[in-house]
């Protein structure tokens, strides 16, 4: 019997094999994917090439991998500068022995059939033609598509209904292994995992959690960064994680990704990225509903298609890689638009197979509002009324649904058909939940050693319960985001530019290389953002040249012993002494932050007064006088930075805050001020009569009041912490400005209106 070769996507191989062997279990079939087939035409590039590019070319991991993605397809030199660059790179890798040989001499077949790739996939067609393989396209058995789609308000409702429908199928003797859930938005996984067992069964979902986001991986990287020893770090991690099976996954990735002889920085960067790429191992159940994200070519299955939305069916995206559409076409690679078209054709082909499909969509998701897929019109699907089934298979979930419906009744007097239906069978005490957490936490006592900072004070004063979740039980471990990363880059430039032989371009690129940015973010960082940092540097340099008898320090550390067992720590971005008598504190901000003393008594805007308290309480500077407390916003909100004719620096780069209202002191900071506004300080001016004015000027007593206020706040916080008082008590400055507005824990505290601390009196409604 001749072997039959089928070219199909890798993830479909098992399901295809099962379908094709239903009638003949001994059918001789070889399944290959497009990627596997390409190895017969294009050389493979071994993993060590990434290390080589990082070590020899000093490329980041992301850039190295991006280049290697295209290299196999660059078969000749080109006038195009990017393709020329890739060709030369490939030639170098070839010389270094990083390209594996071709498999064309061992080609085991000359004919093949194709399933799961449409005729429009020119990448595959090109490979087949180049290998002289004759091919045809196979179609699986077709069925009759149900012409309806259910539209829900939110994900929970869609998942509840889907899981209940699965229960109905199981109850009607459909095998659980014949039921699939197709979803492309991984936001559904949380609800599927959470509620499936409440219906009496499990779901098998591919993990969407990467090792890098786990506490164990973060701890390993911290240990490795501290001691620079892989074996010692793994040993300490194993001791910390004890019998956690996740340790073995981390150990495996670290050992596989460790390369002897690499510099620490490159090895660390490589390990970080390998942990970013590896997903955690999910729990797999023998009898469970299988959750998939792309078509599987089984037949006679029941497939629930969740989130049938625009942008996901088909998947749409844009090319953010190294090459543009013209260059991709030259080397025979699909661009984003072509990939979207092919995905649409694959989906349409799949929905014609002999399976039963159930389409649904949530209008509201965590990413925002969703709209129906364009395939809805192609498939001619009509909206199906989404009312609650008469047979519901989970009382616990039904109670959750009823509570949601009860909310609509309580707040909006809405009584839907579903509400009336559930009310007759479920009875719960509504709005009786006690969220006060009356059982005290046992975190601190009178002897506990506590170190506070301005960020911890601000967090606690915004809401003690939020502080407890973040700082005490560490519900959400801090992950540096894009804003923090670009802020770090700017801060580093402001710290280094005074050094001898400072090379802005070299240091700037060195800082960028410490993070993993997307190509689009890198473009911004290397153009508009870099120019703004340069402008800010020039402005800071000019301002500092005007200082009188100044001593300047960056990231200056201060510590103040508040009580016997409590200290306050702070790092001042820019600390300046003037004339050996005065000092100013400057905090660099890449956002639009202001020093607003309006709410200082409530613990907000406490950063600069904290710095003043720390400086004035130190032995070295206790006799110095506060000359100014400032925010220096270094990035403009406007893309076009203009300098007025009579300005030394752009207005947005002037210091914002408070300055001692003494002209002789202001002259130490800005000697250019004569008549009119200060060139370096906002809201400070000299009138024509020579008098000093402006909202930024304050007296020495005001600075003392700031310090007294903030010291009392720290004492109050220390007292409350030792009482283990972590009440739900968020501040309220207005309807659109509360501590809850951007709190990531607001869904777990169930804050009541009476628990807000109102900083201003509201007008009568």
Describe this entry's structure for a reader.
- The chain is of the alpha/beta class and about 775 residues long.
- The strands form 5 sheets. Strands 5, 6, 7, 8, 9, 10, 11 and 12 form an 8-stranded mixed β-sheet that branches. Strands 13, 14, 15, 16, 17, 18 and 22 form a 7-stranded mixed β-sheet that branches. A 4-stranded parallel β-sheet has the order 2-1-3-4.
- It has 5 domains: about 5-135, no CATH class; about 150-205 and about 285-385, Rossmann fold (3-Layer(aba) Sandwich), CATH 3.40.50.300; about 210-275, no CATH class; about 395-430, no CATH class; about 445-475 and about 550-760, Lambda Exonuclease, Chain A.
- The protein is globular and about 100 Å long.
- About 40% of the residues lie in helices and about 15% in strands.
- The chain has 27 helices and 25 strands.
- The N and C termini lie far apart (about 85 Å).
Number of strands: 25
What is the structural class?
Answer: alpha/beta
CATH class of the largest domain: Alpha Beta
List segments where confidence is low: pLDDT < 50 over at least 5 consecutive residues.
none
Radius of gyration: 32 Å
Q: In one word, what is the shape?
A: globular
CATH architecture of the largest domain: Alpha-Beta Complex
Largest sheet: 8 strands, mixed
Oligomer: single chain
Count the domains. Answer: 5
Strand coverage percent: 15-25%
Q: Helix tally? A: 27
